[in-house]
Amino acid sequence: MGTKLIIGVVLIxxxxxxxxxxxxxxxxxxxPKWASD
Length: 37
What we know:
The chain has about 35 residues and is an all-alpha fold. It has a domain at about 5-25. It is about 70% helix and about 0% strand. It contains one helix and no strands. It has one helix spanning about 5-25. The protein starts with a helix and ends in a 10-residue tail after the last helix. The model has no long low-confidence stretch (mean pLDDT about 85).
């Protein structure tokens, strides 16, 4: 496996997590503790 492929997979994985967290945060009327700061 190439290094670029591994980096690409990691970046897509992290981006997916970030999008999921933001999506859940916007759907949740109550702000979670990590978003209050």
